[in-house]
Amino acid sequence: MPGVCVKVACVGGGPAGLYLSILLKRRDPTHDVTVHERDPEGSTYGWGVTYWRGLLDRLQEHDPESARAVEEHSVRWRDGVAHVGDRAARHHGDEGFGIGRHRLLAILAARARELGVRLEYEHPVTGANPPAADLVVAADGAGSALRNRHADHFGTEITGGRNHYVWLGTTKVFDAFTFAFVETGHGWIWAYGYGFGPEGSTCVVECAPETWTGLGLDRAGEAEGLALLEKLFADVLDGHPLAARSSGRAGAPWRTFRTLTNRTWSRGNLVLLGDAAHTTHYSVGAGTTLALEDAMTLSAALHERATLPDALAHYERARRAALLPVQSAARFSAQWYENLPRYIHLPPQEMFALLGQRHSPLLPYLPPRLYYRVDRAAGRLETLRRLKRRLGPTIARTAQARRLATQEEPGRSRRPDAVPAHRG
């Protein structure tokens, strides 16, 4: 870490802030590192998080102690199951992992303390009272108060999604990553479910706005809304209840996902980390992974670069490049669900195959059944595989250029918006 950066304040006690504090103290135990978290210790808004083997390998490289604890308390699966009405299809895929968010935070907090990090809970930090430090890390989520204080400088922009979603938990322990699509008189509604431990699973429910209002979910109270969802997804829940937040915070608000970007990630000695810098649609399950990878890159840059400005610039360049394919995948994944009627009536195996291919930039531009046949053929022929790999990014770049050009048309507003304080 540059010699001028001996005192570090991480604002936000989520995975990003805690893991950065661990890595900084591992590299140099003499540095003064404090994590400031507004909530009481042990409280969290979420249920479980999901990740893949690649992240576990990187955690092992950076801090074997915390990596072993994370793996020990994770559940794993290899299968994905899609239920469409009374039809179902199962696919054997890559190894996935789930861990309770509360468990992950407890592991990282214990490791940080062990290394000498000060953890200050119930200590809110606003843009008006930043801590005095050589480096202040805004790891306080998508609603970052530190970032919102200087939103014009950071160039914060929000792109709203179309569908409504709600983040729930259930005592049903799914043995596979489970998708359930249910047709109603007002359109389709669906859930993603994955286990995070012996006590239960995360269950995210999503639907189009016309389905949300048609079912009365926009007007229903919490208990009424949960009862309706339990009825709709009774087959996959096996009689288990759904529950709202796992912490003391009230309510189970439906939201529309908002993709957050920033023109720059630093201002003087203030730097953005994790969701404060960027968000990606929850359907790719990458939020926690990206936050932890941000921490890895920032800690390395602070250690290897001679000055703080150089370290922060290197961190931003490296992470922006790494994020591009994930952000593209997230954008196409969200669009796949927003255009669900295009795929939902395919035969189960075809529909499930395209569900797995929803990140593809080529899929929106081909008829679904044609894409399925091309994809199957590409799996057998190397020439077609190369063509598919070449065409996909080309089409994605063209679509991105058109999207940006449309956004920049005269009369279209690109005014930055402040984001409410939600770290989900």
How is this structure best described in words?
The protein is α/β, with parallel strands linked by helices and 424 residues long. Helix content is 41%, strand content 24%. It has 14 helices and 15 strands. The chain has helices at residues 15-27, 53-62, 64-72, 101-115, 145-149, 151-154, 209-214, 222-232, 234-237, 287-304, 308-338, 348-356, 368-378, 382-407; strands spanning 7-11, 32-36, 48-52, 75-84, 87-100, 118-120, 135-138, 157-170, 177-184, 187-197, 200-207, 242-243, 255-261, 266-267, 270-272. Strands 3, 4, 5, 8, 9, 10, 11, 12 and 13 form a nine-stranded mixed β-sheet that branches. A six-stranded mixed β-sheet has the order 6-2-1-7-15-14. Helix 1 (15-27) links the parallel strand 1 (7-11) and strand 2. Helix 2 runs antiparallel to helix 3 and helix 13 (368-378) crosses helix 14 (382-407). The longest helix has 31 residues, at 308-338. It is globular.
Characteristics:
424 residues, alpha/beta, nine-stranded mixed beta sheet, six-stranded mixed beta sheet, 41% helix, globular
